[in-house]
Design brief:
Low-confidence stretches: none
Shape: globular
Largest sheet: 7 strands, mixed
Order of helices and strands: EHEEEHEHEHEHHEHEHEHHEHEEEEHHH
Structural class: alpha/beta
Number of strands: 15
Oligomer: single chain
């Protein structure tokens, strides 16, 4: 049976996490025989466009589409709404679904423990809840939400794959003879959910012992989105000469996936020790490129680490959603960097870690995600 599906996400040409997922999912579901449209609540305003043969509907006035979603659904004659966003941001999705007679499928993150009550309350009216990590599925079940179906995010392993580290560094203008710790993380909100201060403080400790090292940040280093003033932070930590970041304009315009893959290939290790992640796409992208990762032993990050180190030491953090996240220990992150330094100097261990990373990430290849998860789920409906 085919469906008429409206996918509500960032516009599929946006280089955001949600935009990239939409850009891969929408054409694949169309190719399965479903009628697809995208409601771009971010990335398009003022009129409809066609992208890859798929209609993309624009945002309205309300930031989450409360003023225009129902009309878009009626115009497209959609019977399914799949939302790719945090459900706690608004309380009307379930109500609109009931009022207008369409089925709502929130494809959502859960990045705190337990699942916040505001998340649980706002799932009322959902046909099936689609957590994209096993951690999220577990938290929902523990909260009594049983109408769930796990469908993870994906990456294109034809793009994100191992490559020549030295060639990648040369192309990107990075030094070829240093140990590079890299982070790919949005610098939004305070305190930093991505734990940028903790990771940079850990690098400062590591760099004092291993001076032939560099930290590369693919992020906006300014506090324009209410995030961390990275420039002030690295000055305070006295590591300004050992930290590089992506040019602000090119970051905002978005790197191609091929260039992002080259960046991961250039890293010795990805540092992604966040407070919590609903999924954490860079973890999979980096490992698909054969790059080991250092991440926090919490939320979905634990299940997405196949090669690298988990940081278990730290302290819990009570969030504004009245649930717990986890702030990893600066010393423990620094120790993980030192472990990576030693491990990757051994050619046998370096090759083993790379193979483990690639093998683990392969399970999240987009074609497998669609074949193993989306296709049987939609057929069962």
């Amino acid at each position: 049976m085919s469906h008429r599906i409206m996918l509500m996400a960032n516009a599929p040409w946006c280089k955001t996490g949600y935009g990239i997922q939409a850009g891969y999912l929408a054409p694949r579901l169309r190719d399965l025989g479903h009628e697809m449209a995208v409601f771009a609540f971010y990335g398009l305003s003022g009129g409809m466009l066609t992208w890859d043969g798929i209609r993309v509907y624009p945002m309205g006035v309300d930031i989450w589409g409360a003023d225009i979603l129902a009309a878009h659904m009626a115009h497209f004659k959609a019977d399914m709404l799949v939302t790719l966003l945090d459900v706690w941001v608004t309380d009307w999705f379930g109500r609109k679904a009931k009022e207008h007679g369409f089925d709502w499928f929130p494809w959502l993150p859960v990045d705190q423990e337990p699942a916040p009550q505001k998340v649980i309350e706002r799932l009322d009216g959902a046909h099936t809840v689609l957590p994209y990590a096993r951690f999220g599925e577990q938290m929902l079940h523990e909260a009594g939400v049983t109408n769930t179906h796990y469908i993870p995010h994906g990456v294109d392993t034809q793009v994100f794959k191992p490559g020549d580290k030295q060639a990648a560094r040369k192309t990107l203008g990075l030094p070829e003879d240093v140990f590079i710790v890299g982070s790919v993380a949005a610098n939004k909100g305070y305190p930093s959910r991505k734990c940028l201060p903790e990771q940079l403080a850990a690098f400062a400790k590591f760099h004092r012992l291993y001076p032939n090292s560099l930290y590369y940040l693919h992020t906006m280093p300014y506090d324009v989105h209410g995030g961390v003033d990275v420039l002030a932070l690295v000055d305070d930590l006295a590591i300004a000469d050992a930290v590089k970041w992506t040019d602000g304009y090119s970051y905002l315009m978005g790197w191609s996936e091929e260039r992002m893959a080259m960046l991961y290939q250039s890293f010795d290790v990805l540092s992604a020790a966040a407070m919590g992640e609903g999924f954490g796409i860079p973890l999979i992208e980096a490992q698909a490129c054969g790059t080991p990762v250092i991440t926090t032993d919490a939320t979905s990050m634990t299940e997405l680490m196949f090669a690298g180190a988990l940081v278990s030491e730290g302290q819990r953090f009570w969030t504004p959603l009245n649930a717990w996240a986890f702030i990893p220990s600066v010393d423990a992150i620094a120790n993980a960097y030192a472990w990576a330094w030693d491990a990757l100097r051994d050619p046998v261990q370096r090759e083993r870690l790379s193979e483990q990373a690639v093998t683990g990430a392969a399970a999240y290849d987009w074609d497998r995600i669609v074949t193993d998860y989306w296709q049987p789920f939609l057929e069962a409906l």
